[in-house]
Amino acid sequence: MARPKKQGLDYFTNDVNFYQDIKIRKLIRHKGVQAVSVYHILLCQIYASGYYLPWDEDLPFIVSEISGLEEDTIQDIINYCITIGLFDKTVFDTHQVLTSHGIQERYISFCTVAKRKLPDNTPYLLVNLNPNQVNSDKKVVSSEQALFNSEEINDNTEETPNIA
Predict the structure, then answer these.
(1) What does the alpha-carbon distance between residue 74 and residue 99 come to, in Å, rounded to a whole number?
(2) Contact at 8 Å (CB) between 78 and 117?
(3) How far apart are CA 143 and CA 116, in angstroms?
(4) Distance (Å, rounded) from C-alpha 87 to C-alpha 39?
(5) Mind giving me the DSSP string for the chain?
(6) Which of 47, 39, 41, 50 is nearest to 12 (CA)?
(7) Model pTM score
(8) pLDDT tens digits for 77-113?
């Protein structure tokens, strides 16, 4: 019998400029340094299963057990993480799922480096998986549309009078 495919990661990297991120600095300023631990615990939970974490009533308890902080504090920190954009507010409000564009980009990058194929079912995806498409201001444009034909540009240099 074949072993089931692993979707999550065994480890993930942490950028050396992690604390320079304005969102992390806001998190520390407004919720204290313990809030970074809560965020990091949540990242571990997310990456262990893939690129998102479904919200449930037990999540604050689980994080509380790991961090030693009260469940109400955990809930407050998670809400603030959503407010400042560490987690995507729309996806959370709509689907009760913790994820973000950055989390998904890093997960896809890790999978690419590890030469691991992404699962066929990719719900709550905020990033574009089609390499022939370019994300531009949250509007997905195919690379063919992003390129332009120089003949289509209206060049009026011959019609413009030369004023000396």
Answers:
(1) 17
(2) no
(3) 25
(4) 10
(5) -PPPPP-S-S-----TTGGGSHHHHHHHHHH-THHHHHHHHHHHHHHHHSS-EE--TTHHHHHHHHH---HHHHHHHHHHHHHHTSS-HHHHHHH-EE--HHHHHHHHHHHHHTTPPPPS--TT--S---TTEEEETTEEEEHHHHS--GGGS---TTTS----
(6) 47
(7) 0.74
(8) 999 999 999 999 999 999 999 999 999 999 999 889 8
